[in-house]
Amino acid sequence: MTSYLPSTITAPLSRGNDLIRSTIGGFSWGPALSVSKAAVKSLFGRIEIGSLVVVDNATGQTLTYGEKADQSGGGGLQAKLVVKKDAFWVRLFLFADMGFAESFMLGEVECEDLTGFFEVSKKKNNNSYQSILSNVERGKGKEKE
Predict the structure, then answer these.
(1) Is residue 82 within 8 Å of 110, Cβ to Cβ?
(2) Residue 10 — very low, low, confident or very high, per pLDDT cuts 50/70/90?
(3) How far apart are CA 127 and CA 135, in angstroms?
């Protein structure tokens, strides 16, 4: 959008707008990140076949979801995610599969075997498979029984 006002007027307004936006964003980011991370980790905890190793660079934690390495029921399916930036958790929570794709393209998360990740993240639901990430999108955290 083209402004018809001189930059001496618009520049301070723009800087003030950016300052207000970043201040408000700073207050809401912590709670949004906390809720997002907890919800996504809860869904990862539902992995039944194979295992998912998540390395969180921000906290230095390495967590394993699903079957542990010493169990053989998963047919050897294993995937590893390296979370580079916390924005990954929020994107995944808000936008499910599309959020994962965006985070991957932006370098917020790394995964050497994307096919393996999607295989591990699928769960059996009434004789068909769906991604556990789709539960975030629909607002469901659990299967209906």
Answers:
(1) yes
(2) low
(3) 17
